[in-house]
Amino acid sequence: MFKDSLSFEHFRNRLAHAEALPQLVLLGIMSGLVTGLVILAFRLMIDLPLEAWLPGNNNENFEGLPVWIRFILPVIGAILLLVLFLNLRPATRKVGVVHVLERLSYHQGHLPAKNMLVQFFGAVMAILSGQSVGREGPAVHLGAACGSLVGQTLKLPNNSLRILVGCGVAAAISASFNTPLAGVIFAMEVILMEYTVIGFTPVLVASVTAALLIKAAYGDEPAFSIPAVQIQSLAELPYIIILGLVTALMAAVFIRIMVQTQRTIKWSMAARFLTAGTLTGIVALFYPQVMGVGYDTVTMALEGNTELKLLIGLLIAKWLLTPFVLGLGIPGGLIGPTFYIGAVTGASFGVVIALLTGESHSGIGFYAMLGMGAMMGAVLNAPLAALIALLELTGNPNIIFPGMLTIVVATTTVRYFFNQPSIFLTSLKAQGLDYRQEPLTQALSRLGVSSIMHTDFIRSGYIATADAALHVLESQPEWMILEDENGKPTDILFPADLEYFIQAISERDGFNPDLRLDLTEVPAVRKDIAPLPINATLKEALDKMNYERLDALYIEKLNHEIAGIITREQVEHFYTQKLH
Fold first, then answer.
1. Which residues contact 137 (CB under 8 A, 6 or more apart)?
2. How many angstroms separate the Cα of 385 from the Cα of each of 31, 188, 319, 393, 425?
3. pLDDT tens digits, one per residue of 424-433
4. Of 20, 3, 557, 50, which Cα lies nearest the Cα of 295?
5. Alpha-carbon distance 261 to 318, whole Å?
6. Contact 454/413 with Cβ under 8 angstroms?
7. What are the phi and psi torsion angles at 69 (to 5°)?
């Protein structure tokens, strides 16, 4: 017994239960380590080439390139991306956060390795060629795929795959920004859309593991150079609220441009990619700061030393170009661009306030920082993740109150005034997909079928003698599985009914041990059955029963042996107890 408890099969079966925290913590560490290594490779694939050939060995210095290179580089990048994508099947081209949400909603968190590789190399090409996209969206896909592939490789139950996807996402955000807590909140708020103790702990462990790995490679340098900021006077509260409203407008237009581009432009892939590259090249002639990730521009806005004319030009260029490029299908991210747009919006607002009032109040960098958080919260519909990111990036608790105010105003305005959910859910809806997470769906998705299945059963053919039937019934099984002549299970029989039938016949005619019984004709509770893999969730079990109009399923192990029986009554008993 003790030896069995140490087996990997026992480890795998424990994950199907609600209380599997030790096992999930170990998997969280593994997912965080794998994700951290992949994100490290992803960042190095971008940083090292850019440092080698951009002027001054600065991986952000696209503006130091000659004008003609700034134009032609995005076009060449678009051509290379086109060559990559044209050699792929349509299903393999799907990448990004929306792809992650689709796989969670419709495929139990099974993310394909091929799509992960496309995301890795596609995003590297896009950023190296100066496309106006970020690296954090691709990082989220890479992290989610790492967590999912860990679970798929170990053949873990599907209910644990969902948590492993969250582990990978948290680790990816943590490794990208050096913000482990924001990574956890982003994974729970944007991807998993639920907070549970059993899910929070492994996700937190994964995020910390990835952060430690990135700190060892890159040091403890923050993603941005943030000045010490805090609100100087409560008289500035109206300005903070107005900034939230302005940012909400920017976020709503950003979402609308991207989604409308996805819906209305049905050109060929060649036309879409070449249009995106050409537009980026044209804009880069005047504002090269739109190229690449653009964190140097974010830092510039936070330092507050930029003229208003340049800030407004950069804002309009990035704000209009990025959602259009992403809507055309360039495989980059939008989280980094939201930071860029929010920071420049806030900095512009701060300069205007200074001009109108004759002073800068809390400083331009203060408003730039608030703009970053507000834009992220509004576009992603993730106010808590945005607030925690602000706190971790600044290391300054004084930012919490003004940050909370502007983020709540921006997020609420976008959500209820402009009627825009997160950009990811809006993109899913534009594709005719849904990502609803009702309480019942969440509850049934957290457990695997092996956590409640009946394992006390016997197997029998259709024909059995009375003596043989009574002999097998001595073990008092919960169900009897009936098999056809080929050994295929077809239905289940309630054993007590068979025993009662034999006793009734014996009392009437005397007991005949050689009496041949056709078990398919015995009056008894009988249910047709179909197979279900042991890694399925209760949600999958209920869906299959509803689809095939069945009231029971038999559970198959990985080697196709029968592991147990699950009935509709068991599932209903579980969720009625869970929800009441």
1. 96, 97, 332, 333, 334, 335, 336
2. 21, 9, 22, 12, 17
3. 988 888 887 7
4. 50
5. 16
6. no
7. -70, -35
